[in-house]
Design a protein that fits this description.
heterodimer, A: alpha+beta, three-stranded antiparallel beta sheet, two-stranded antiparallel ribbon, B: alpha+beta, 2 domains, 7 helices, elongated
Chain lengths: 208, 212
């Protein structure tokens, strides 16, 4: 591994902008799409903080019914039961499947909440010029981008169970309305994380 | 790949510079040996790579990915038996039964993330690399196809689906006896192939060839 030699200032300060898709550099004033890959080139993605807030708010709002409404209905000859996200975790604990319970707890509860807090924190730190280490912010941003998709586990669990367990009167599993809300929440938080432009996180100091 | 590739087809005079995609720091372009990569000095993101035989390896992986995905669509990936009733499901059955049980939205999400996006991504990547490998003429659509195949990467969720399948196996193991089918293993291989594509695909090399 090598470290590239830095020039000591950003492309934006040099009056240049780099294509986010292929890395080609052009002058900021250039109005054309990237000559190499054809993507639109922005020095910083425009209104990206507002966009992140919009996606994030949808994500947080959808997360509320996702937790209150059942995500899965089990219909059997002994009666109907419905599970929410958290009661599903307790069911797994009661059957001694601690490891799987932990996976679901982390993916469906810890990761979403962590992401709400981190994305909101990053957006606020950009809006109010918080004095926060760029390295910390950068790492937090990469972390949210990386872990976001793993929240989809619960959606796929319900999809597989509902498709598989169709044994008529003996046992039938139906998806509940909560899982729709949960999927919406995960998708919109992923969009929120990816719409934040990480290059903005490094701008504050020099532009004051 | 020889270093001369790095400089072909570049327009403008910024060939010797790169801007870090993570933090926008301007850096001097390094001359890398095969297998080396360079990181940004400020945010430690990887800014330059040079991987060996990237076209051949990634093309092979993309083609096998497409085959594996098609296999896992049609064959059953789980079967269960309880009280004499057996049920087998393939990925398409799963989507169909969600569609029929008035949960269309969940069916569409599953179909999109497990089938359409991964397949679309592999087809675009395979097409671009195929034309490069067999020295066909570069078409305009290839740049867009490659751009989208990179952009779709986080939305192809076969790996997460597999964890979901394993969790559901545990969840119903006390209700019925379950068996994994051929499609389960081919999906698992698909996950491995996707990781391999991540490791061998050198975007810089492909962009340089496409802009020639």
């Amino acid at each position: 591994m090598e470290h590239s030699q830095p020039l000591g200032f950003s492309a934006r300060e040099a009056g240049l902008k780099a294509c986010t898709s292929c890395g080609t550099i052009q002058k900021i004033a250039t109005a054309y799409p990237c000559a190499r890959c054809g993507a639109s080139v922005f020095s910083r993605r425009r209104h990206c903080v507002q966009r992140a807030w919009a996606f994030l708010i949808v994500g947080i709002l959808a997360y509320i019914p996702a937790n209150l409404q059942p995500i899965m209905l089990t219909r059997s000859f002994t009666g109907d039961t419905s599970d929410t996200i958290i009661s599903g975790v307790f069911v797994l604990i009661s059957t001694d499947s601690y490891f799987v319970a932990l996976i679901i707890f982390v993916a469906s509860i810890c990761i979403p909440i962590l992401k709400f807090v981190v994305i909101a924190g990053l957006a606020l730190s950009l809006q109010f010029d918080w004095d926060m280490s760029e390295h910390t912010r950068h790492r937090l941003h990469r972390l949210t981008e990386f872990i976001g998709r793993w929240s989809m586990i619960d959606v796929f669990v319900v999809a597989v169970l509902a498709a598989l367990i169709q044994l008529g009167a003996i046992l039938t599993i139906l998806p509940g309305i909560g899982i729709n809300a949960f999927a919406v929440s995960v998708i919109f938080t992923m969009l929120a994380a990816s719409s934040l432009d990480s290059r903005l996180l490094w701008d504050n100091k020099n532009e004051g | 790949m020889t270093t001369s590739v790095d400089h072909t087809g570049r327009q403008g005079s910024f060939d010797n510079l790169i801007a870090c995609p993570g933090c926008d720091l301007l850096l001097h372009r390094q001359v890398l040996q095969e297998g080396e990569f360079a990181r940004c000095t400020r945010c430690s993101d990887v800014v330059q790579t040079r991987k060996c035989q990237t076209i051949d390896r990634t093309l092979a992986a993309a083609v096998s990915g497409i085959v594996l995905l098609l296999i896992s669509l049609c064959l059953p990936f789980l079967s269960l038996s309880r009280a004499g009733i057996e049920s087998h499901i393939s990925v398409l059955d799963a989507v169909e039964s969600l569609w029929l049980s008035k949960m269309r939205w969940l069916g569409i999400v599953t179909l999109a993330f497990i089938v359409l996006l991964p397949l679309g991504r592999l087809l675009m990547l395979g097409w671009v690399l195929w034309r490069i490998r067999f020295k066909r003429k570069t078409r305009r659509g290839m740049r867009m196809a490659f751009r989208w195949s990179l952009r779709l990467e986080p939305w192809a969720m076969a790996d997460i689906f597999m964890v979901g399948v394993v969790v559901s196996l545990v969840k119903v193991s006390m209700l019925a006896s379950l068996h994994v089918g051929a499609a389960f293993w081919s999906l698992l291989l698909l996950v491995a192939v996707s990781i391999y594509i991540d490791l061998t695909l050198c975007k810089e090399t492909v962009w340089n060839i496409l802009s020639r």
